[in-house]
Write a structure and sequence with these properties.
CATH topology of the largest domain: Quinone Oxidoreductase, Chain A, domain 1
Number of strands: 15
CATH architecture of the largest domain: Alpha-Beta Complex
CATH class of the largest domain: Alpha Beta
Oligomer: single chain
Distance between the termini: 12 Å
Length: about 325
Amino acid sequence: MKAVLMTRAGEPEVLQVAEVPDPVILQETDMRVRLKAAGVNPIDTKLRQRGTFYPDRMPAILGCDGAGIVESVGTAVQKFRPGDEVYFCNGGIGGHPGNYAEWAIVPESFAAHKPASISFAEAAAAPLVLITAWEALYDRARLQPGQRALIHAGAGGVGHVAIQLAKLQGASVCTTVSTPEKADFVRRLGATYPILYKTTDFAKATLDWTQGQGVDITFDTVGGTILGQSFPATQIYGDLVTILEPDPSTPWKVARTRNQRISFELMLTPMLQGLVEEQKAQAKILEQCARLIDKGELKIHVDRTFPLAQAADAHRVLEAGGVTGKLVLLTE
């Protein structure tokens, strides 16, 4: 099969298309999936730059997110059969081969039926960001109806689904964006108050929006100093969730004196730690999201697609910034 191989850490040029052996089913609970599309995520570019979590297993095939058609199943597979359309987040961090390829082997319990109403490209764009936003808002922050949330980078991959999940829970959302066009985009998703962070102090704007109290929940998808800058914008006893490592200069004393709860969200933890039951639970999140998508209550925005052979170009575009929603590789 054709696959994009990462032979070493480095610039996008280290991603090269090559012929590799077709994968085979080794476990009775595995499925062989003919991939139609693979999502491109920031974790892919970071692993390409610095090396995977398993440097002794090179070359690597990146890509955590995939969508395709089940071609064959192991003898113990019960939930799926050949011909079923599936989507999933599995592999791609250096241990198990990822989805920048034509075929993938996926444990049945880690996959979900693809939403019938969307394309393979949209489905492949969805798993990592859906699981991340779901776990951050519902599991970590315990978002409740009537609460107010600040979601950073609302037009991004995680941000654009986080806005929708917050609205589905009955929350009001303000969100940071970089342009008026992105402000219009997030309004269509349900955001009440887009904040143009390049020209506006988001913390002050958030406090004004909440009559000086601060939001109940802040979701940081940006990293760097944003978490620390968000402490004053979050109410006393409020929650903050970040998907990135805080900056060394983070003013933790501000959060402490405000008695705020800080949580970390890394949806890759089950894969990294070999936590099978937790990865099964993530597949159940995808099942619930598929129902929401097919009911028209949740949308996945694909900014741009690339042929598999142009994976390096997709990485360049993602690293340049400014992407609205997600980028996707098409395997056919």
